[in-house]
## 1
Amino acid sequence: VWVVDNIVDKQQSYPQIREAAEWLRVGEVVAFPTETVYGLGADAANTEAVEKIFAAKGRPSDNPLIVHVATMAQAESVVAAIPPLARTLMERFWPGPLTLVLPKRKGAVSERVTAGLPTVAVRMPAHPLALALIEESGLALAAPSANRSGRPSPTTAAHVLADLNGRIAGVMDGGPTGIGVESTVLDCSQTVPTILRPGGVTKEALMEVIGHVAEAAGQEHEPGAPKAPGMKYTHYAPKAPLWIVAGSPAFLQRLVEESRAEGKAVGVLTTEEHRGQYAADIVISCGTRRALETVARQLYDALRRFDDANVDLIYSEAFPEEGIGVALMNRLRKAAGGRVIHEQHE
Ligand code: TXA
Ligand code: MG
C-alpha cells in the first residue's frame, strides 16, 4: 500500500495523482479524501473492480454505491436524464455533500454499483484531491466510505489504513476531512424529493431551494439489505456498547459511577461545555455545542479513540436535532444500536 502525503493544491500536477489514477484505470481500488469522509474508489463501469470494493470492505453486496463525478458531463453520462429540480440542486450544491438518486442510464455503470436498481446515486465531491483524481482517471468512481463494514467511517488516512491496510492499492492522504459525516442522499426519482439519509446538506438548506422535501420513514435506506435488527445495529459502531444519554451531565455522571462500581471501564463522549463535569476512565470532547459542525467533524474519530482506550462501555451526550445535528444524531443512534437512556423527571 502506498500513501500519498497530504496534497492540497490541485493546480499542481502530482505524479502521485497520476499513479493513483493509473491504479484505477487498471481496475484496482484506491482510497481518497472527500469533504465528508474518505471514499474507497473503483471504476464504476468495471464490475470486477467494483467487486474489489465489496471484498475489501466486507460489505453486503446488495447495498448500492454512490458514483462520484467531477463534471456535469460525467453526471449526465450515468443518468437517464436530469429533471429540472435535480439540475437546480446540482447548480446550488455541487460540488458538495449532496447525493442525488436519479433514473440510471442503461449500461453506464456496473449492475453491482446499483444493486440491480433502476436508479443510480450520483455526487460531485467538494475536495480538490477527489476532483483531481476523478479528472485524471477519466472515470466515474463508485465509492462507499473507506472503512471495514460496520466500523465508523474514516475521516483521516490513518483510519483508512487501520481498517484496510493490505486490502487496497493505496490511499491518498488529504488530511482530516472537513464535514465528518457522509453526504445527504436525496431520492429525486420520485415526484417529491425524499431524504433517504440525512447528511452534510441540511433539510433546511434543501427546502430553501426546492420548497417541499420529504423524509423517508425509518433510517438509512438500504434496498435489499437484510432487515434483521442485528444488521442495521452494526453501523458506525465502536467495539464497546454505546449508550446515548438524554439528560443532564449530572445524570450521565451517575450512570458512569454505577457502571464503574460494577468494575467496568467507562468512556464518556461529551463537548467542551460539559467536559469538566465528568470523571470516567476516558472523557472525550468532540467539539462545542455552539457549533454542531465541530461535533460532526470529530464524531467518527472519537468513536475510534474509545476502541484504542479499551473501555467496556461508552456513554454519550445527546445533541439537538437541528441543522447538521440531524445527521449527527442519526449516526450516533446507529453507533448506539438505538440504545437511549432518558433521564426521568418527576
Ligand atoms: O459522503 C458520502 O456519501 C461518502 C463519500 C465517500 O462520498 N460515501 C458514502 O457511501 O457514504 P456509502 O456507500 O457508505 O453510502 C451510500 C448510501 C447508502 O445509504 C446507499 O443505500 C445509498 O447511498 N444509495 C446508493 N445508491 C442508491 C440508490 N440507487 N437508491 C437508493 N439509495 C442508494
Ligand atoms: Mg458507509
Note: Residues 219-233 have pLDDT under 50 and may be disordered.
## 2
Amino acid sequence: MSENYKEMWKNLGLDLDQHDALLKVLGKGYQDIYLAQKDRPEGMGYFDFVMSEVHGLRIKELMDEKVAGRKVIGSFCVFVPEEIVQVADATLVGLCTGADFAIEEVEKLLPRNTCSLIKSAFGFKLGKVCPYIESADMIVGENTCDGKKKSYEILKNLVSNLYVMDLPQVKSAEGRALLKAEYVRFKEAVEELTGITIDAERLKKGIEIVNNKRKAIYRLSSLRKVDPAPISGLDALLANQVFFYDNPARFTESANKICDELEKRIENGEGVFPKKTPRLLLSGCPMAVPNWKLPRITETSGAVIVGEESCVGERGTRNLTDDSGTTVDKLMEAIIDRYFQVDCAIFTPNPDRLDHIIEMAKTYKADGVIHYGLQFCQPYLMEAMPVEKALEAKNIPTLRIDTDYSMEDVGQLKTRVEAFVELLK
Ligand code: BJ8
C-alpha cells in the first residue's frame, strides 16, 4: 500500500489489528496465486495496483467523493441496478463476501449450515474489517435465496442503513411487475438519499456509463475464445471482480487497454498456456474477492479457464441496457427488461440458465464444465444436477464441485480436478 491509511480506517471504525491481519493474509495469497503466474499481460499491472489498494486508495477516493457530496451504496447482488445509483451522483460498490472471517462470532448469529458467502458478509461486519460496508450510506439487501433474505433480518440489527429490495422468483408478467415496482421504489429511495431527482438525461448518462463498463468486460471475455487463451482464467476473474469496486470510467479504460494488448497477443499466436491445453468453463455461484481457490486449483492442474457462467462473470455483465428511450418511464422499462434477463438460480423454473451454459461452453470452445456450488447453497446445488444432465446430453463432460471458503478440502479438490483434466485429455 502506497500510503498510510491507518487514520482513515480508524475513523471508519475498523479493528486495526484484525484488519492488519486480514491484509497480511490477502497480500500473501495474492503474491502466491496471482503474481506467481507466468506470462501475464502487462495490463494486469493496473489490476494488481487496484488490488494492492483495494482497502487503501479506493476507500480514500470514496471518502473524498463523500466529502464532495457523493454517496456510497453497497450491494451484495447484481440485481441492484447500478444505472440508477450512478445517475444520482452515487457510487455502487460490491461488499466483501469472498473470505471467512470471525467465523465463531458469525455462528452465534447464523446457523452453521449457511453458505460461506452470507457468513463472509457477516464476518467482515462483525470483525470490523470491511471499509466498504463502513463507508456505505446505504446497504442494499435483496430477497433472493432464503439464506440471504432471512439473514437480512439479522443484519439489520448490525447496521443502521439497510434497505431491502424484494425480487421476483418467477419470470412471469407478475414477476416483472414486482421487479418494476421494486426498481421504482429503489429509485425513490436513492433520490431521497442523494437529494437528486433522476430525470431522463441523467438516466441516459448512467446507462451509457454502465453499458460501457459491461461492453469492456464482455470484450475481454470474448477474446478468451481463441486457443491458446491470451489471458488466464484467474486474471480474467480478477478483472470481473474489480468491476464491482473500481471507478467505472477508469475500469472501462483499463479493461479496454488490456483487450488491445490481448488482441496483439492473439495476432502473434501468444497465450498464457500452450495450445491445446484443456479448456474449462466455470459455472455456478459467484466468486467474490478473494475467493480464488477453485480457479487456482484448476489452472495448476493442467487446464485453463476460458469463461465464467457466474454473476462475477457473464451472467452479471452479459446484457446491455437499451438507452434509446427519451423519458424516465421508457428508460426505467429498459432497465427492468435488462435485469429481468439475469438467470440466477433463485428463479423457478430457470431454463434460460441451462441454455446459457451450453451456449457458453460452445462459444468458448470448452472441453468441459466445472459446476461450482457453495455448500448449503440450495439454488445452485439443486440446479447442478439438471445442468450436468443437460451438458452430458450434449457430450460436454461436467464435474460437480461443492465447496466452501476453507482450505481444508484443497488436496481432495485438486485430486478430483486433475482426474477430470486427465479425462479431457
Ligand atoms: S443474482 S447468484 S449475486 S443472488 S451462494 S447467497 S444464492 S445460498 S449469491 Fe447471487 Fe444475486 Fe443470484 Fe447473482 Fe444464496 Fe447461494 Fe449463498 Fe448466493
Note: The longest strand covers residues 368-374.
